[in-house]
Design goal:
The chain is an all-alpha fold. It is about 75% helix and about 0% strand.
Amino acid sequence: MDNTDNIALYAFRKFGDTVLRAAYTCCGSYAEAEDITQDVFLQLHTKPQSFTDDEHLKAWLLRVAINKCKNLKRSFRISRTSSLDNVEAESASYEIKTEESSVLAEIRSLPEKYASVIYLYYYEGYNTREIAEMQGKSENTVSSLLRRGREKLRLELEREGAL
């Protein structure tokens, strides 16, 4: 890495969009994804880590973002106060513009354990071993989650007529 004086600024410039996309995919709310992204880089700034290379830094950032999404979903505020109508309206108004937005929407609708593995595998290009290390799971577990997630995604896309 080039800049060890301010690792958080370097990481934000290099991986800010990647972390934002991962957070959005996991939580489905652009506003929440922005907050999570900010929290990830603030954590890196206040508690600097050492990384072997940029790929290690990126993996750490994504793992922290996904964990923060999990924590958000478990939080009292989200589980007790969000209505489905509000989530759908907010999600529609802030949708990230990509040609695969319908597929991303379907990925977001999957249970989080499948959505995060599918996102990391297909959108970030990590292999099952790397995802297993990031999420603290065995490689076999990640492979199973990936297989089951693909099947659920395929069935949902067929049901919606997207396949």
